[in-house]
């Protein structure tokens, strides 16, 4: 099964912090991280990563440890 990490908007972190976390932990490019941050700000949430549970669980934990509002769940395959 494929899983996803969803990042939710919050009032505790600014754009630069979110972008820095996505670059460091998720290995996003600066442009990709900025786009994710903008989408989360505008829509309230965004699926920032997907993959096999074991591969993304550690990333989810690292993002949680940085106090980002993230959730891990099953991806809807179409």
Short description:
By secondary structure, the protein is of the alpha+beta class. The protein has helices spanning 15-26, 30-43, 53-65; strands at residues 2-8, 45-52, 70-74.
Keywords:
78 residues, alpha+beta, 3-stranded antiparallel β-sheet, 3 helices, 26% strand
Describe this structure in words.
By secondary structure, the protein is α+β, with helices and mostly antiparallel strands. The protein has three helices and three strands; from the N terminus they run βααβαβ. It has helices at 15-26, 30-43, 53-65; strands at 2-8, 45-52, 70-74. The protein has a three-stranded antiparallel β-sheet. α1 (15-26) crosses α2.
Distance between the termini: 13 Å
The biggest sheet amounts to: 3 strands, antiparallel
Residue-averaged pLDDT, rounded? 94
Count of β-strands:
3
The secondary-structure class comes to alpha+beta
Number of helices: 3
Q: How large is the share of residues in beta strands? A: 25-35%
Low-confidence stretches: none
Fraction of residues in helices? 40-55%
- What is the rounded Rg? 12 Å
Shape: globular
- Could you give the order of the helices and strands? EHHEHE
The spatial strand order of the largest sheet comes to: 2-1-3
Which secondary structure elements does this structure contain, and how are they paired or packed?
Elements: E1 2-8, H1 15-26, H2 30-43, E2 45-52, H3 53-65, E3 70-74
Antiparallel strand pairs: 1-2, 1-3
Helix pairs in contact: 1-2
